[in-house]
Amino acid sequence: MNESHLLLASVSPRRRQLLSWIQPGFSVTSSDIDETPLPGESPIVYVKRMAREKGEKAALKAPDLVVVASDTIVELDGRILGKPGNAEEARSMLGALRGKIHHVFTAISIHQPGADPTIIDCCVVDVPMRAYSDDEMEKYILSGDPFDKAGAYAIQNHEFHPVEQFSGCYACVMGLPLCHLSRHIIKMGKQIAENPVSVCSQQLAYRCEISSSVLSFTDQITC
Description:
This protein has 223 residues and is α/β, with parallel strands linked by helices.
């Protein structure tokens, strides 16, 4: 895909990094929207709506570009965990997640000029957290890393390393499932610069167990 034709509707440094691994060179814009969940809205409906609204807002500013947007949420026992606003919220989230399996949903939207409807896809993974100690948790909170992350943690933080025995889409937890995005770009008749499976193996030192199913276009693994 020509780099001048792709716009990422996100200022997240993690999403910019992930996209650059498969498609170097693209434009970036912010897409601030009201992220308040609607009454009774389920996590999956909420995350898809967020990705759609982010993409549609960005597309209004760049109607001639292919716009990619994404949203990630952490869900535990039916409750959506957003980004902590302070240390106490981070402590509460990390304490609730400790030693348990929770779900991470990342939805992507792709808006093509002149195409309707917007493509919406979603990746959901089970994330098993290890039983980190109170001291480890406090040190991590003091680092400041939890405060711009849903659920108050980063799976890729090697010092805290909160997740163990993970077998899903690593990039999904980071904020942009590369195989899901790549398969839609390919369906659009466009090319990607790098193979997402190779990228995750090289950049994340992670061997993905679901990539072949995602890229096959046949297995019903989307949510």
